[in-house]
Amino acid sequence: MSASDIGLPKIISVDDHVVEPAHVWQSWLPERFRENGPRIERKRWGAFRHKAGARYVNTEDPEGLWGDAWYFEGRLIYVHKRFVAIPLEATPDGDVKSFDRTKMVMEAVTYDEMRPGCYDREARIADFELNWVDGSLPFPTFPRFCGQTFLEADDKELGLACVQAYNDWMIHEWCAPSGGVNIPLCLIPLWDAELAAAEVRRVAALGCRAICFSELPHHLGLPTIHTGSWDPLLAECDASGVTLCMHIGSSSTNPAASPDAPGGVGGTLAFNNSMASMADWLFSGKLIEFPKLKLAYSEGQIGWIPYALERADTVWEQHDSWQRSKERIPEPPSTYYYGRIFGCFTADHHGLHSLAEVGEDNICFETDYPHTDTTWPNSREYVEKMLAGFDPEIAYKVLRGNAIRMLELDRV
Q1: From CA 173, how far away is CA 121, in angstroms rounded?
Q2: CA-to-CA distance for 345 and 201, rounded, in angstroms?
Q3: Residues contacting residue 188 through CB under 8 Å, at least 6 positions apart
Q4: Cα(89)–Cα(103) distance, integer angstroms
Q5: Cα separation values, 38 from 26, 32, 174, 361, 381, Å
Q6: What is the CATH number of the domain that holds 164?
Q7: This model's pTM is above 0.85
Q8: Is residue 296 predicted with pLDDT exceeding 90?
Q9: Domain span at residue 266?
């Protein structure tokens, strides 16, 4: 019996993206920080150039397209773009059945020209209802994938206030009134592990069970996970049941390739940082030291995981005479993967058909709304085909059960 034979479980998507409404920091920051805090300005923009880690070279052009831009500490940080926020022209006359992905291009866009579900809570709930989704974990846009924008702030007191304001908005305004559709994903002050632990403790008390973290923090000029510097944060996450969610690009780097490689090369190799990060964690000993700690590789896909685990176990066994891995890790590295590390995917036929190695309890589906990888508005039809022939129990785990466990949701 297949999943479609008994009714398809609704999707809890573990990776979507929120375009922060223009009012967030001007409403939620303490008044003394608002002058230098994030604000929106509308200007005309020319061509953009994409850099690693969701950064761009933005050029004003008096003849260019209108676009809404975030300024912070008096500096231009980010201009909204049509391939990050679905433009209205991609659904002409509001007809979602005619969704035209070719309209999602790297050009400027204003809030008025976006699909309201990108930034408006009620419109997003409606977009998810028609997409067979009743739960969504939203990564940030302006702060970047793990809050790098505030890490780079000159004034760290302001940066901390911005992190807390975002989290308060996320929990109280974006999620709480959504009836469970929006699930809180919060930021931490990356520059101070003790402050980060305190913020995890604060948001966990408000019901949050997921925070953004960097896949490879040393690329951000931060300590590695091996140094022990992050232990206060990891201990708090371990105690509070909070998952570290590491989105591709959260190290502000792209996987290595030729410096002049076409854009498709980076898109193909995007999973590489997730693979490197998982090797870091498997050999770090941190999953032993913090036995309840959970990790998620958001948009990292899953097809690479079986070989990564096989290779890690082979290295652990055959190279121990000189690497001494067994002194730190008494069991094969894959031991610490199952049930603890979650692979999150949008499209991965190979990974889904390698469940014996990937682990049926270790993978979660994501719709990636409103980015160009999204399966919206056809996610139901998409997952019906994707899971054709799979047992209903597997379909439940992939579409929602594993997400419920990962995020400690009071759901069925």
Answers
A1: 8
A2: 29
A3: 147, 163, 195, 196, 199, 200, 211, 212, 213, 233
A4: 7
A5: 7, 13, 18, 40, 39
A6: 3.20.20.140
A7: yes
A8: yes
A9: 3-20+115-407
